[in-house]
Amino acid sequence: MTFRAVTQHKKHGYQANFKPHKTLRNHLVHPKDKRDTKTTADCVYEIPCLGFTKSYIGATSRLFGTRMKEHKTESDLASEKPYTRAQRKSSVASAPKKSALTDHVAEDNHVIGWEEAKIRDIETNRKRRHIKESIWIRKRGQANTLNRDCGNYFLPHIYDQLLTAPTSATNRKQQTRKVNAEHSI
Questions:
Q1: Distance between CA 57 and CA 119 in Å, rounded?
Q2: 57 contacts 45 by C-beta, under 8 angstroms
Q3: Considering all CA atoms of the chain, what is the largest pairwise distance in Å, rounded to the nearest integer?
Q4: Of 47, 144, 145, 154, which residue has the fewest beta carbons closer than 10 angstroms?
Q5: 135 has pLDDT over 60
Q6: 3-class DSSP state for residue 19?
Q7: How many CB atoms lie within 10 A of CB 35?
Q8: CA dihedral 158, 164, 169, 174 (to 10 degrees)
Q9: What is the pLDDT of residue 56?
Q10: Mean pLDDT throughout 138-150?
Q11: In DSSP terms, which residues pair with 48 in a beta bridge?
């Protein structure tokens, strides 16, 4: 409640308390240090394309900064060569690149948002990290990612319903009815 609302309640005989949202403690005390993304290892990451709403989702056991540098170096090499459109398409078809992100830069000549890259998940176990990568790709939708495949782990399509969360309770009821109807047929 705001201070004004508290005073109005007191005027009419109601008990109300005022508690400020921003306190000195909130501004000064931060129990955890912020993690530097470049020195984070064992993570699932997302690198957006600034020309599209699409993004590349990958997983690495090495430092995120090292993997980003590799992506950037290879993308820069692919985009530096001056080609006509026909030459660019023929060179892309002849030489597969290390990642789908580099293929996208070479084919479409789009700008990648290196500064907007985010770590989506941290997992030290390799198998779980591959599962999380597949989940993030499936959450974004295969049409909204630059990835060539659905990740290093085959995630059955039965999980699609869980990964695409409905927006409201009525939507959930409608989806549940639809699924029950499909399974009863």
A1: 10
A2: yes
A3: 81
A4: 154
A5: yes
A6: coil
A7: 10
A8: -50
A9: 94
A10: 88
A11: 55
Q: Nearest-CA neighbor of 155 among 133, 123, 124, 184?
A: 133
How many Cβ atoms from other residues are within 10 Å of residue 126's Cβ? 12
With CA atoms as reference, report the closest residue to 147 among 133, 157, 159, 161. Answer: 133
Please report which residue ranges of the chain form alpha helices under DSSP H.
3-11, 24-28, 64-80, 85-94, 100-108, 126-140, 160-163, 169-184
Tokens 């990290």 — which residue? 129
pLDDT per position as a tens digit, 17-76: 666 677 777 778 777 777 788 999 999 999 999 988 899 999 999 999 999 999 999 888
Q: Which of 50, 47, 79, 48 is nearest to 60 (CA)?
A: 47
Q: What is the pLDDT of residue 94?
A: 57
Three-state secondary-structure class, residue 62:
strand
Reading the block at residue 8, the tokens are: 């109005």
Both tokens of 88, joined, read 């660019």
CB neighbour list of residue 145: distance below 8 Å, 6 or more residues apart: 54, 55, 56, 57, 137
Q: What is the residue type of 111?
A: V
Per-residue pLDDT tens over the stretch 87-134: 656 665 556 667 888 888 888 888 899 999 999 999 999 999 999 999
How far apart are alpha carbons 168 and 181 in whole angstroms?
20
